[in-house]
Amino acid sequence: MSFRDAGPPVALIVIFGLFAVLSPQFRSLTNVQNIVDSAAVLAVVTCGITFVLMMGSIDLSAAGVMGASALTVSLLVANNRNDNDFGFLAIVAAVLLGCVFGGLSGLALVLLKVPSFMATLGVSAVGLGVATLMFAGVQPNISDTMLESWAVERFLGFSYLAWIAAACILLGWLIQRYTRLGRYAYAIGGAEEVLTLSGVKVKPYKVAVFVFAGAFYGLGGVMVTSQLGAGLVQAGNGYDFSAITAAVVGGTLLTGGRGGVLHSAVGVLLVMVLTNGLVQIGVSPYWQGGVEGVIVVAAVAAAVIPQRRRNQVVK
What we know:
The chain is mostly helical and 315 residues long. It has helices spanning 3-22, 29-38, 40-54, 62-76, 88-110, 116-135, 145-152, 160-178, 180-197, 202-228, 239-250, 261-280, 288-311; strands spanning 154-155, 158-159. The chain crosses the membrane at residues 6-23, 35-54, 86-111, 117-135, 155-175, 207-230, 236-254, 261-279, 285-305.
């Protein structure tokens, strides 16, 4: 691990220690559990977006995909709108829908040559439209005991959602570390031309990365539905920017080729600790969005300035 990779974990420890000194309530076990539980959905979404960022692309589809997946699962499990009760199959269907939206983003990128941020922004709008149609003006409230237990039941002090997020982080790290998909995502972000000249067909891997990310967004929509007890079009509102913030703060470059799932997981904890700590010491929640914006700009600047100096690039 290089010195720059150690920066985010050190910052996490320092910020946690600072808030622990300023607020006795912040350092309580209950509050630590709340931080971990509240970070669960963001951690899952960030896992997905990390693979896209490693390629040097941008994904803004999380909000729309999560909204569509949230409405899908809420209408397929036991609910107040219909007689469906598909249980776990409903969760699988919501995740698969996320894969479909991710595939659309990837195909728009590699076939239509649409820049990733525009392609994913369009897919997000499609997802929100689909979610609005399924919502149909009546909120579907879930009554499925299994899905409700994700946010209510606890194991070793943490909610099931937190353990699901931990499993997703582990899965993401294993794929990043031991599969071609993870290694090629790194290589595409670092030097796509070299990878292409070596005989690797890059386009299928780009699409696969977006499909993989879409699966995480779909699961994130299911997790939000478990928390709210209902399917909402706005289930993913704000998660796209928060996930990018967490990934960048953790050390995943927007230009690709550096970072990873574990880096982003540290970034998620950094963002959640900062958000929780500001509330604990009495800072208005209305400042939190501004603080996130300052953090992401500072993190990007800290990562890019050394590169500009090394390469003597001036733009």
